[in-house]
Amino acid sequence: MIIPTHLPGIQKEALAFMDEHSSLPFFLYLSYTLPHAALQLPKDDSTFEYYKRKFSEEAKPVNAPWNGKGYEPQAYPHAAYAAMVTRLDHYVGQVMEKLIELGIEKNTLIVFTSDNGPHREGGNDPAFFNSSGGFRGIKRDLYEGGIRTPMIAYWPAVIRKSKVSEFAGAFWDFMPTFAEIAGVPVPPYTDGISLLPEFSSEGKQKEHEFLYWEFHEGGGRQAVRKGKWKGVRLNVMKDPGSAIQLYNLNSDPGETKDVAAENPAIIKRIKKIMQNEHTENINFPFIKNEK
To answer: pTM for this structure?
Structure first.
């Protein structure tokens, strides 16, 4: 397998940025879109051919010509997805190599994560790769497979090697974390909390009382994580009073057994959180006449 040499503009700019700013503290946000639909690759990507052979993948029917609407179809979605992951791995490796070359890798915090669970768009097949890792659901679901994503934080000068964290956080925690590291005030309008104590193993890490999500597609969905408990409500737009499903993530991380009937007090608390945390917007109506 030959690693491709073609670099997109974002990667070239990122490597150049590190060269130019290595003598001072800097913040670099790299929003790679790999792997994602459409499942298309540069023509020089030999890893695509490698994975076709590895998976013995037979071409799927593709409508031709593509009409330019939606995601361009891919005849070999398994191979294309794997090649995208390999390419992303290569790009991240280049960033690491650059930090080592500049001699700043030990005191640079690198956070690698995903914005959501695996997708099915463009012919992608998350079941083939077990992309949800045993959790229920995929992108756009509020079950764990849709919102629980892998995260790696690398900072040799601060983070203990091979440390595994059980902290339940969310993307809105990054801003206060970076603010504390930079020594600047945290804006007062955030629900996030700094993860620096968790990273450094110094001081007591503050915990979220709860985490709340809502999603306006698929009939409208809400979810709350409160300690070990996870509440999920579906079809909110049609029925704001629809039943809340309840899962004990400690004993049932795959969310296979709804234990709402046995825990009415927990359901009552989660329902209250859903009511309090939602803010209705006239341009994006969600909950109407909640019971």
So the answer is: 0.91
**8, 11, 119, 4: which is closest to 50 by C-alpha?**
4
Own/partner contacts of 216-224, CB < 8 Å, gap of 24 or more, are 216/284, 216/286, 217/140, 218/140, 220/286, 220/287, 221/141, 221/142, 222/142, 222/274, 222/278, 223/142, 223/143, 223/147, 224/270, 224/273, 224/274
Whether the pLDDT of residue 176 is over 80: the answer is yes
Question: Rounded CA gap, 197 and 204, in Å?
Answer: 6
Which domains can be identified in the chain, with CATH numbers?
9-157 (3.40.720.10), 211-277 (3.30.1120.10)
Q: What is the C-alpha to C-alpha distance for residues 187 and 144, in angstroms, rounded to an integer?
A: 29
Distance CA 18, CA 24 (A): 10
Q: Which of 46, 28, 47, 123 is nearest to 85 (CA)?
A: 47
CA gap 286, 214 in Å, rounded: 9
Summarised one tens digit per residue, pLDDT across range 219-255 is: 999 999 999 999 999 999 999 899 999 999 999 999 9
- Measured in whole angstroms, the distance separating CA 168 from the mean position of its chain's CA atoms is 13
Find how far residue 255's CA is from the centre of its chain: 19
Beta carbons of 117 and 149 less than 8 angstroms apart: yes
pLDDT digits (tens, 9 = 90+) for 118-175: 999 989 999 999 999 999 999 999 999 999 998 999 999 999 988 999 999 999 999 9
